[in-house]
Amino acid sequence: xxxxxxxxxxxxxxxxxxxxxxxxxxxxxxxxxxxxxxxxxxxxxxxxxxxxxxxxxxxxxxxxxxxxxxxxxxxxxxxxxxxxxxxxxxxxxxxxxxxxxxxxxxxxxxxxxxxxxxxxxxxxxxxxxxxxxxxxxxxxxxxxxxxxxxxxxxxxxxxxxxxxxxxxxxxxxxxxxxxxxxxxxxxxxxxxxxxxxxxxxxxxxxxxxxxxxxxxxxxxxxxxxxxxxxxxxxxxxxxxxxxxxxxxxxxxxxxxxxxxxxxxxxxxxxxxxxxxxxxxxxxxxxxxxxxxxxxxxxxxxxxxxxxxxxxxxxxxxxxxxxxxxxxxxxxxxxxxxxxxxxxxxxxxxxxxxxxxxxxxxxxxxxxxxxxxxxxxxxxxxxxxxxxxxxxxxxxxxxxxxxxxxxxxxxxxxxxxxxxxxxxxxxxxxxxxxxxxxxxxxxxxxxxxxxxxxxxxxxxxxxxxxxxxxxxxxxxxxxxxxxxxxxxxxxxxxxxxxxxxxxxxxxxxxxxxxxxxxxxxxxxxxxxxxxxxxxxxxxxxxxxxxxxxxxxxxxxxxxxxxxxxxxxxxxxxxxxxxxxxxxxxxxxxxxxxxxxxxxxxxxxxxxxxxxxxxxxxxxxxxxxxxxxxxxxxxxxxxxxxxxxxxxxxxxxxxxxxxxxxxxxxxxxxxxxxxxxxxxxxxxxxxxxxxxxxxxxxxxxxxxxxxxxxxxxxxxxxxxxxxxxxxxxxxxxxxxxxxxxxxxxxxxxxxxxxxxxxxxxxxxxxxxxxxxxxxxxxxxxxxxxxxxxxxxxxxxxxxxxxxxxxxxxxxxxxxxxxxxxxxxxxxxxxxxxxxxxxxxxxxxxxxxxxxxxxxxxxxxxxxxxxxxxxxxxxxxxxxxxxxxx
Length: 883
Description:
Layout: H1 4-12, E1 18-20, H2 49-53, H3 63-73, H4 83-93, H5 105-117, E2 127-130, E3 151-154, E4 162-166, E5 170-174, E6 182-183, E7 193-201, E8 204-211, E9 224-227, E10 235-236, E11 249-254, E12 262-266, E13 269-273, E14 281-285, E15 288-293, E16 301-305, E17 314-317, E18 325-326, E19 337-344, E20 352-358, E21 364-370, E22 378-382, E23 407-410, E24 418-421, E25 425-428, E26 436-439, E27 454-459, E28 466-470, E29 473-477, E30 485-486, E31 496-501, E32 509-513, E33 517-521, E34 526-530, E35 538-539, E36 547-551, E37 555-559, E38 565-568, E39 583-585, E40 593-596, E41 600-603, E42 611-612, E43 624-627, E44 635-638, E45 643-646, E46 654-656, E47 665-670, E48 678-682, E49 691-694, E50 702-703, E51 713-718, E52 726-730, E53 733-737, E54 745-746, E55 756-762, E56 767-772, E57 777-781, E58 792-794, E59 798-800, E60 805-809, E61 817-821, E62 826-830, E63 836-840, E64 845-855, E65 858-871
Parallel strand pairs: 59-65
Antiparallel strand pairs: 1-38, 2-57, 3-4, 4-5, 5-6, 7-8, 8-9, 9-10, 11-12, 12-13, 13-14, 15-16, 16-17, 17-18, 19-20, 20-21, 21-22, 23-24, 24-25, 25-26, 27-28, 28-29, 29-30, 31-32, 32-33, 33-34, 35-36, 36-37, 37-38, 39-40, 40-41, 41-42, 43-44, 44-45, 45-46, 47-48, 48-49, 49-50, 51-52, 52-53, ...
């Protein structure tokens, strides 16, 4: 992970330096209202500290308030820690939120149910492309990262079986001590996992899992689920989100003496069950995060709350979790701590440690220890010494990611041996008065490497091996943290933002990933070619040695030697774009590239020099950018709510009026043969508004959404030389439509229910390739294109006398001329190339329309019989809102 300091170093050298790297089982689907608590991952972030101290207790922040607090906090110094974590969450949430600033959980659930029940196009057989293993860093044998994990759990009797939970990639199981992994959660309604507990019952292995993403907040959740057959199938528990009042969960613990007794922490409080979640009780209200049981004494349970304003507390129960009381003796944390991680050990079950994150900085605040089961506490280490949650290997920095990444565990055989993690991992052997760095987040000859951002540390109960789950996967140490081994191979959990495929038949592509850099697949092997958060990336269409990549907020890079070295090509050091800044390559001229900030920049020499081709185009960051393949004078760009177009290569720009400005625009698709035929995809949960089409460059729009699920549509692409074959990327899979279909068709039969973030057609290979946010890269071979037709449609097919009816030619085929046949119609107007015709009728009846397409002495006919119906009266139904 590249933190802001390293990012600033790169930017400060970008004009003159060259940067070199050192380097299926179908599950039961049930009716549960899916929810996503949008403020969960910002709950303890330092920019909310002052804000919440001015608010009354129990106040809930809107998305806009959190965004404003963040912007104020980072206004003077954007190098403070936590910047990227918030921007990731913001990027996920902002386009998906409705007017009430909440995700529509009911709409999402219904979309999933319809998706599972819908007829699927089985001609697309999706296969997982990769990465199959954790890719090595280019030019070295060092491993990078393979995707984020939240938790690790173990089979109660079999030491070879290990379980891990990914925030958007599901639950994974290893049966061979971490050598390989498999998942059975791909068809669950939500595939984010925050915590796992396992038991043996009647000869079967039962697994209980908390869904969603308790730390990062960029996944959907459906409550606590269980499997009674070792993870082959999954069913709900009584503690579904509909039953638990839209809570999100982080921890589950189980009483080893009576495994029917379990407790779980949530944003609503602590829940307890005595019958394995057949029923449950809310035993303590409040926002709770960590949870531990006293080894050998399950009547004593510890829990921690978290708080925006720094009033996180430690709670203690001595009646098996039926009631809890705050324990404060010896603690000096009131108003100072946002999150607390606790740990216990069978080596001395009276000992409990508490690792505290500062509410003002999310860095290390203090380590406390209790030697009497939490009755009283002693300070062991404070923030005047090493910052155990920071990024510096010497611990001399300020701040950290304690609101997002904090973990601690104690050796099961030595109560003085602790390992804690924030960004890096630190170890003490004397109870916390002296610490040594045991791993560093960046490859260095001086330190062991473990990927950044620790979410869980735990010792195996079988062999005392130590495990770390973090933003790069899972690591194991067999010597109490002195050395580490990455065992993430075969975990298919990569969260990918964007991908870019080679135009040739080489099968090469690059992909930009959340916190795991940019990967290159050269047709046979995978390599990481850049660190950090990777965004838009491309392989030059004429020279595959040339690779373009980008990082967050518009940092652009170019390599001339297939990713061995990169140089910055950002147009201007002082401009910053969206989290995923639009960055595209000309479809025919590979040396011509474009990037969109609040203005559009064009380079005709591969990024050596740039020209700004707009002036004060937008006050907001642009989010989408597209160039017409048939006429490069036509470019379209958009913020979330405003669309712009140029027809003269950027000399002048016009705002385009749209019918969907209350929804976030996510992508723009232009016909390969006509620059005025445009499709726009939209985010959000408006059931009828997903994709819109314009045949006249945005002068008017037709709703093209029929058949799409009511989830965000993240991308849309068209296949060349086809009958308008379109593919849409959604939050639950891929959908397909062509000119002869009246609705979109689900073509995700062999895909996991994952968020599809990007989609590409590789024309030279007849393949479709997608990036998912949590399940890596997938592809399918496309069938032969459907023969093109001279297709058209009308804006209305039923009308009154003299009503204007607009006819649009919709095919992507180039033409020499078009000829309409509209008997009995009055022609009111037509476009210059005859691809749009406006007609009316003055007699009732049903009318046939014919269109003839002429190209190179070939004629294609399209006839729609009795296509238009004219009536003397029309029935109009008004909804209550219209009275």
